Amino acid sequence: MESETPRVSFISIVDFSEDARWLFLTESVSDLLGFEPRELIGRPALELVHPDEFSQVKQMHYDTIREDKAAALAYLRLKHKDPFKGYILCAVSRTVVHSVLVGSVSFATPGGKALQNTSTAQEVEVVTPSAKNFELRRWGDPSPMTSSPSTPDLASRAACASTDSDTSDASSSRSRSKKPTIISFNPLPCQSPRSALILDRFSIHCTVLYCSNDLLLSTTRVLGRSFFDFVTSRTEHSVRSWIDVIKSWGVNDRGQPSDGGFGFGKFVLLLAGRNSRGENEQDTPLSRRRLGDARINYRMPSSPRCASHSSPGTSSRSRPPSSSSSDQEISVDAIFSGHSDGILLVLRPTSKV
């Protein structure tokens, strides 16, 4: 069974309700769990959780929202549509983005990929007892989305952690041993002013496929355009290099696009947008099957598998006005993660660089 399960990951969004209802899913959910996105939209995500883990996962859902968590990872079992396949052990990531939970679900398998996921996550909780081997000895690491964020670059953040703790299973053990709190969803307030974008990972331009809200960028303005249109020219090179790293991380042991842990960075967002493309520059197709060989490759096809809204005709839009005035720029902290269907990017305002 395990060898037959696709090593893919899908991006998902659930609401703050007690049932954690699905609001958005990308198409790889059908590869991993057998459901089409339309079959799950509006249904409780918790109904797929294994009965033995339901109470703990429900508490985890509430705690994630209440504590405004980001880049948190959990290992738990989710039900496959095919009853003969039973429950699939999954790695579920989640980040609070204003009024929703944004994250991903991927097939959990031990090895290098699991090490990469757990070592870059801000919190790891093992719900399924048989997944204890996914636990990792970690040093304490401050969250990148706290009220007073640190500002390391992507490479140093992924490679280094502070040395104020060397407890072997700190966050997961404390979470399981603490006394359960009373769960109340009536109502939970909107949390930090964060926005989530899904970018086309198969395009050198990283076209914006989805925008969760208008807190930082106008949804109607960004959809269908290159993400780099909204990155200042002076920080574009760094952001491109970070995304290249995330793309290279997000390849599974079969050479297929999948998940690959979290990367953290800081750059300047250009609210009005600009034209980041060359006059005659176009995406050059590349078969998705060659992604494993390509590793970091600037010639990836623009063939998004995102099961949300598409934006036909947006490539021919007129150029937006460019502005370098301070009121058109905002410094942001970012969490990058690669998945089978795209790059997930979570942004929140921070101090000026």
From TrEMBL:
One of its GO terms (molecular function) is DNA-binding transcription factor activity, RNA polymerase II-specific. It comes from the Eukaryota. The keyword Zinc-finger does not apply. InterPro entries: PAS, PAS-like_dom_sf, PAS_fold_3. Residues 142-174, 308-326 have a biased composition (Low complexity). One of its GO terms (cellular component) is nucleus. The keyword Acyltransferase does not apply. Transmembrane segments: none annotated. SMART domains: PAS. Residues 136-180, 277-330 are annotated as: Disordered. Keywords: DNA-binding, Nucleus, Transcription, Transcription regulation. Residues 13-68 form the PAS domain. Its main location: nucleus. It is found in: Nucleus. This is PAS domain-containing protein.
